[in-house]
Design brief:
Elements: H1 6-41, E1 48-50, E2 54-56, H2 64-70, H3 84-117, H4 124-131, H5 133-136, H6 139-149, H7 155-160, H8 170-198, H9 202-210, H10 215-243, H11 247-252, H12 266-274, H13 278-315
Antiparallel strand pairs: 1-2
Helix pairs in contact: 1-13, 2-13, 3-8, 3-10, 8-10, 10-13, 12-13
Length: about 325
């Protein structure tokens, strides 16, 4: 049997590069240009929009747009109330709060749902299909649905026997956003974890039961370690989504609640800033990108360390 030559391998590599190049060019045009344009705009004072694509005018402002968001504080008399310095840090805290709480709840609930759906029982296929319904509903529809449910005379207050203005108070508005987001996206997490559990050989559980392992020990020693790659994908995907969340709080609470900024995320603040200047909005977008990139890198490294340690522990 003849072995492929180096020339043949190089030819295949060139052919692969040629076939992939149209997709790379399209990605560069659709993704690369907006990113570079936003970065350049963030260093300009007051650019204006022209033809829907290009910004003109505006002098080079250096890092003034970034310093405006990062260094300006609006709690003293030198800064008028309602200016944007405090709003940025408030939006950062609100975004991180939503990310930690919603992702944690979705992972826990999604893991329980995946365990149930992974069992053999009558109607399992129907249950898996029904569980995916909230995830299939568009986010705008979900937000409007929960907006009516959280209304003063809505089903939530009637079911609980309360009279809460859910979208007006600071913590009640945040609670409404968290409940809505968890309801919609937990099925996505459950689906990913279920796919990871489906790949675990059943013989591992049978051998563990023969050795006297309890169901909890099987879950801790077998299920969790082997489902970690799927768990990494679910956590990273959902963390990136929540860090960029806009439509659900914007429709459900109009980005307000309490002092008017209780549910204002970084994406909502960016859209509001666009009405005042593209330079400041581009600076927020760049800072948001840096934050998302840092969180994603930290999560991937943390899970990678855990995976390597688990493999070494299993080989020892």
């Amino acid at each position: 049997m003849t072995q492929p030559s180096a020339t043949t391998g190089q030819g295949r590599s060139r052919l692969g590069a040629v076939l992939v190049s149209p997709a790379l060019i399209l990605l560069a045009a659709v993704i690369g240009y907006p990113v570079v344009s936003a970065l350049m705009t963030s260093f300009r004072a007051d650019p204006t929009l022209q033809n829907g694509f290009f910004t003109t005018g505006g002098e080079f402002a250096g890092f003034s747009n970034y310093l405006h968001w990062l260094a300006q504080r609006c709690g003293d008399t030198s800064c008028p109330p309602g200016t944007l310095g405090d709003q940025f840090w408030t939006s950062v805290l609100v975004t991180l709060f939503f990310t930690v709480v919603t992702v944690s709840l979705e992972v826990v609930i999604g893991l329980l749902m995946a365990i149930v759906m992974n069992q053999a029982f009558a109607g399992r296929g129907f249950l898996r299909a029904v569980v995916l319904v909230p995830w299939a509903i568009p986010t705008a529809v979900t937000a409007k649905l929960w907006f009516f449910m959280f209304a003063y005379d809505g089903i939530v207050n009637r079911a609980l026997g309360t009279h809460v203005l859910w979208t007006d108070g600071a913590w009640s508005a945040r609670t409404a956003v968290i409940i809505s987001d968890v309801w919609k996206t937990t099925p996505f997490v459950a689906l990913l974890l279920l796919a990871g559990m489906s790949g675990i050989p059943g013989g591992l559980y049978e051998a563990a039961r023969i050795d006297g392992a309890s169901p909890f020990q099987c879950f801790v020693r077998i299920t969790l370690p082997l489902v970690r790659p799927a768990l990494l994908v679910a956590v990273v995907f959902r963390a990136l989504d929540v860090l960029r969340i806009y439509d659900l709080p914007a429709i459900l609470t109009h980005g307000g609640g309490g002092d008017g900024h209780a549910t204002t995320t970084l994406s909502i603040l960016t859209v509001r800033q666009i009405q005042q200047g593209y330079g400041g909005a581009s600076a927020i977008s760049t800072l948001t990108f840096v934050l998302i990139f840092g969180v994603a890198l930290a999560l991937v490294r943390a899970f990678r360390v855990n995976l390597v340690q688990s493999e070494q522990h299993g080989m020892s």
